[in-house]
Each structure stands twice: as structure tokens, then as C-alpha cells.
Amino acid sequence: MIDPTLEFETALQGLADAHLIRKRPVIEAVDGTHLRVDGNTVLAFCSNDYLGLSQHPALIEAARQGALTYGVGAGASPLVSGHSAAIDALEHELADFVRLPRALYFGSGYVANIGLVPALVGRGDAVFSDSLNHACLIDGARLSRADIHVYPHNDLTALTEALQRSTARRKLILTDAVFSMDGDVAPLAEMIALCERFDAWLMIDDAHGFGVLGPQGRGTAAHCGIDSPRLIYMATLGKAAGSAGAFVAGHPTVIEWLMQRARSYIFATASPAMVGEALRASVKVIEQEEWRREHLHRLIARLRAGTADLPWEHPASPTAIQPLIIGGNAEALAVMQAIRQRGIWAPAIRPPTVPEGTARLRISLSAAHSEADIDRLVAVLHEVA
């Protein structure tokens, strides 16, 4: 009898041979910047908790009170059994915070994007997608069945030419606002101008800009000064906001359409109200505690100064995402393991997450880090190099 798992075993061995096997360490949080992994405490530069809010007492207390008031579950889809007063208030507060008319909450950024894109475009329409977009935007575009045009990373000339050639009924530009593996920022002001010129929509995924960039952390659209009814703004809430979920904001008619047509909203169980209460507390902290962003930007400058003479490429990034390009998969894993042995955890990112030949350490900084933490990281990197 043929072993039905043999095909998968062979494929897994192929991944292992290419140094592409992923593992899930079992972790235990010690504090905002330290984790216990396999019994050892490490200084972590692997989290997207950019403002250090996941351990904030105000968020923890808000979640506790939310659980006491509402319980820990939601029961059903929000269109079947309604959504909680906490999530309803959160949507209004998020819309006010990003200065857009209306917002809609989703359980995660991935869930949001695979539902939003197919709700916005379909057969006969066209999607224009940056070559370095996150997988959830790519998957959303594929699910839409629209014609997909991939343009080179942040290449406005190529994007303009593709828009000029298109005869599609509806045109949708998709882009990360801050790119998750490089930390660079999309030219959003120029892109919204192209939307006006070619009667297109711009949907941005601001997973890594919300809370970090813009006045009071209002995100990359605010950072770039965008104010247009053609903007569809999506941001996740499990990174700088320190909790879980995502939201989309924009023109009220567009948001109503998305609520009626996004399958990943319609058919998903609503999120617990306790998460909504934690996020309401988070929005207040993001808005009021400017020192967190100021401290984070000082840490970014300190790290970049310390890595200037390392043998690895350190692409320009004004954000908390600071990649060190190692090159080969095996080499990136070796560097990751060497710094782990010295008590530092920064993950090695390999294809298909990044292009072939650009395996890297993805160093993520947080306002919870200290200057001493940065100095320790720099010293270990020099020792390993």
C-alpha cells in the first residue's frame, strides 16, 4: 500500500535542504522586551509590538473589565447576532483617530485583506499591486479574479504606464504603506494623485505605520498628508496597538459596501468585546503618549549609527523595521543562531517571504527597548560579523 504522506515528506525534505524549514519556538513573556525560549531568557528584536503596548497596564485592565462585563466570546457573526457596544465604540473612535468618516473592525489584517479586495474588484476590473506587497494583499487580489498587474517596487513610472494602458471598468492600486520586510514607505501622495488622474482607487495596508508614523501616530496616510475619498485605509491592531484585529476606514458608502460584501467579515465570528475594550484603551495611549514614538525614533538612529560599519547591507528605513541583508539562506540562519547563542533573538527571514538572495535579519525595534538594549545588540552583531 502506498504511503499517502510520502509526497509531503519528500517536499518537506526539499525545504530542509534549501534551509527553508520554519520552526515555532515555545515562548514565555518575561517583560516587554525579553522572552524565555527553551528555558533561556533572550533580548527580543522579533516582535511587531512597536510601542510596547502589549504589556501596558491600561490595556490589560481594559481587557479584564471587558471580560467581566461581556464574557470572553462573541457567539456568532456580527451580522447574525450583532456586535458588542465595545466594538461599535471602537469603530467610531478609530475613524475619528485616523480622520476618516467611518471604520469597520475585522478579526485580523489577513482576514481583512482577503475579504476587502474581492469586495472592491472582480472580473473585468484591474488590480495594480506592488511587487513587494504582503501575502494577504496578493491573496486578496488573486481571490478577486480581477486582472492583476504587478509593478516593480515603488516604481511610479511603471505604475503610471500600467494605468494608462488599462481599459478596466474599475482600477484598484494595492500597496503596503510601510513594507514589512524592508521598512521603507510607499510614495502615497504621488499614488493618490495617479488615482485622481486615472479614476482609480488606492487601498493601503498600514500594518506597520499605524501608531508609529504621522501626527499622534495616526498612520502613514497622515504622515504623507493624504486626504481623498479615493483612499481605502486598512491597518492592523496587533502590532503597534498591542492587541489584535484590524480595521478598514474610508468613505461611508464604501465601508457600508464592504460590510455587505466582504465574505471574511460576513461569515466570520465577531471578535470578543474584551478585545474591543483593550483596543479603545490602546487608541488613547497611542494618541497621548508621544514620548513612545520619540524614544523609538532615537533608538532607530542609534541602531543605524551602530551598524554603519557592518559587512551587511542595512537599507534605509525610517521605521521600526530595520533589516540587515545577509544574502544566502544558510548564512542568515547561521547569523541568527550565533546571536541567539549570545542571548539576542532577531529572526532570519528567507524566501518566499523575501526575494531569492536577500535573506536577512529582520530587526524590529520597540519603544519598550532601552538604549542599552540597542548597544548590546550592536555589540553582538559586531562580534558575530
Would you kindly provide a written description of the structure presented here, covering whatever features stand out?
This protein has 385 residues and is α/β, with parallel strands linked by helices. It has 2 domains: 24-51 and 290-384, Aspartate Aminotransferase, domain 1 (Alpha-Beta Complex); 57-288, Type I PLP-dependent aspartate aminotransferase-like (Major domain) (Aspartate Aminotransferase, domain 2). It is built from 15 helices and 14 strands. A 7-stranded mixed beta sheet has the order 4-10-9-8-7-5-6, sandwiched between helices. Helix 4 runs parallel beside helix 12 (273-288) and helix 13 runs parallel beside helix 15 (371-384). The longest helix is centred in the C-terminal third of the chain and has 17 residues, at 290-306.
Question: Any descriptors?
Answer:
385 residues; 43% helix; alpha/beta; seven-stranded mixed beta sheet; Aspartate Aminotransferase, domain 2; 2 domains; four-stranded mixed beta sheet; globular; Aspartate Aminotransferase, domain 1; 14 strands
Brief rundown of the structure:
This protein is α/β, with parallel strands linked by helices and 385 residues long. Helices cover 43% and strands 17% of the residues.
